[in-house]
C-alpha cells in the first residue's frame, strides 16, 4: 500500500491499525476489522474518485500547506467547478526547516509543490492556492516583497517568476486536502545513484555502430580542412585569444575543454565529443567516401 500512498488521501490514518500490528510486543491478530479495512483500501485504489489522468486542456490548481511538514497537491479544476487530484505529494521537514518562520514554511510548501509537479506546471497557466494570506501579496501577480523580507523569500519569488500562475487565498477550513497531507508526510526514500558512463566511452560505443571503420573515419577527419586545423590545435595547443583564429573555428575554441583527440598507434582517431554537428559532418563525408 505504501507504493500507492501518493494516490490515496489520508492513507496513513486509514492504515493505522496495520501499523499497530507491526509494533514490537504486539500479538499478531488478523481480525474482522483488519479484513474489512484491507478490502476498503483495495477499493480506494480502484476507485475513480482517487485519481484522474492529466489533461492539458483542463485548468490546473496547485494546493499547498505546511505545519511542521511541507506538502503539495495538484488538482484539476473541471468545467463544473469540481476538482479531482492528479497526484499527492508530501515530505518531512528537515531540522533546519522546522525552525523557519511560519511564512517561510508556507512558502517552502509552495516551492515543494511547484518543483514536485514542475513537469505538469511549466509552460502552463495554473492557480496556486494557499491558506497563508501574506503570500498572496508576496507571490501574486502584483507581487511586492516587503523590505524586511528574507533573502530566502526573494529567491523563491524569482524562481516562481519562471511560471505563469495566479495566487488565490483559501481559508484553512477549505484547504483540507493540503492540510491532511502536511500532517501525514511520507518519508523520502534514498534512491541509489547510477554511475554515469564517461562521454568518451559512450562516443566510442556509438562509433562502433557506424557502417564504416575507424580507419575510414580517421582519413575523412584529416582530409577535412576545417577539422584538420582543429586536430592540429588539439595536438599543439590553442591560441590564447579567440581573435587569433578564423571565425569558422571559434565555436571549437569556445568548447576546447570538451574536445578530445586520441591516436594510440592503431589509426584510431576521433574528436569532438560534444560538437555533434561537426561530428556528423565528418561522418557524412566518411560515408560518402565509403560508397564512392
From TrEMBL:
Query: Which CDD domains does this one have?
Result: RNase_HI_RT_Ty3
All residue ranges annotated as the Reverse transcriptase RNase H-like domain in the record? 56-163
- Give one GO term, molecular function aspect: endonuclease activity
InterPro entries cross-referenced by the UniProt entry: DNA/RNA_pol_sf (IPR043502), Retrovirus_Pol_polyprotein (IPR050951), Rev_trsase/Diguanyl_cyclase (IPR043128), RT_RNaseH (IPR041373)
Transmembrane intervals: none
State if Nucleotidyltransferase is listed as a keyword: yes
Tell me the Pfam families matching this sequence: RT_RNaseH (PF17917)
The answer on whether this UniProt entry bears the keyword Nuclease reads yes
Could you list this entry's UniProt keywords, alphabetically sorted: Endonuclease, Hydrolase, Nuclease, Nucleotidyltransferase, RNA-directed DNA polymerase, Transferase
The family database entries (PANTHER family) matched by this protein are listed as: PROTEIN CBG26694 (PTHR37984), PROTEIN NYNRIN-LIKE (PTHR37984:SF5)
Q: What is the protein name for this chain?
A: Reverse transcriptase RNase H-like domain-containing protein
Q: Which organism is it from?
A: Trichuris trichiura
Amino acid at each position: 500500500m505504501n507504493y500507492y500512498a501518493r494516490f490515496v488521501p489520508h492513507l496513513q490514518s486509514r492504515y493505522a491499525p496495520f501499523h499497530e500490528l507491526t509494533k514490537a510486543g504486539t500479538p499478531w491478530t488478523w481480525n474482522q476489522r483488519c479484513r474489512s479495512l484491507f478490502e476498503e483500501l483495495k477499493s480506494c485504489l480502484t476507485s475513480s474518485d482517487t485519481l484522474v489522468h492529466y489533461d492539458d486542456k483542463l485548468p490546473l490548481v496547485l494546493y499547498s500547506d505546511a505545519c511542521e511538514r511541507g506538502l503539495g497537491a495538484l488538482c484539476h479544476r473541471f468545467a463544473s467547478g469540481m476538482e479531482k487530484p492528479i497526484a499527492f505529494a508530501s515530505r518531512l521537514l528537515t531540522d533546519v526547516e522546522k525552525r523557519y518562520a511560519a511564512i517561510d514554511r508556507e512558502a517552502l510548501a509552495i516551492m515543494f509543490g511547484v518543483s514536485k509537479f514542475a513537469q505538469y506546471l511549466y509552460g502552463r497557466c495554473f492557480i496556486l492556492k494557499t491558506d497563508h494570506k501574506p503570500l498572496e501579496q508576496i507571490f501574486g501577480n502584483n507581487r511586492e516583497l516587503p523590505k524586511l523580507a528574507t533573502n530566502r523569500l526573494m529567491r523563491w519569488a524569482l524562481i516562481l517568476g519562471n511560471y505563469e500562475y495566479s495566487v488565490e487565498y483559501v481559508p484553512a477550513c477549505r484547504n483540507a486536502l493540503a492540510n491532511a497531507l502536511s500532517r501525514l508526510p511520507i518519508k523520502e526514500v534514498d534512491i541509489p545513484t547510477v554511475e554515469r558512463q564517461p562521454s568518451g566511452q559512450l562516443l566510442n560505443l556509438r562509433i562502433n555502430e557506424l557502417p564504416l571503420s575507424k580507419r575510414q573515419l580517421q582519413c575523412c577527419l584529416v582530409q577535412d580542412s576545417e577539422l584538420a586545423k582543429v586536430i592540429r590545435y588539439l595536438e599543439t595547443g590553442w591560441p590564447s585569444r579567440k581573435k587569433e583564429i578564423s571565425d569558422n573555428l571559434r565555436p571549437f575554441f569556445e568548447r576546447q575543454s570538451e574536445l578530445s583527440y586520441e591516436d594510440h598507434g592503431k589509426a584510431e582517431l576521433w574528436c569532438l565529443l560534444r560538437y555533434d554537428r561537426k561530428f556528423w559532418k565528418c561522418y557524412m563525408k566518411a560515408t560518402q567516401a565509403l560508397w564512392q
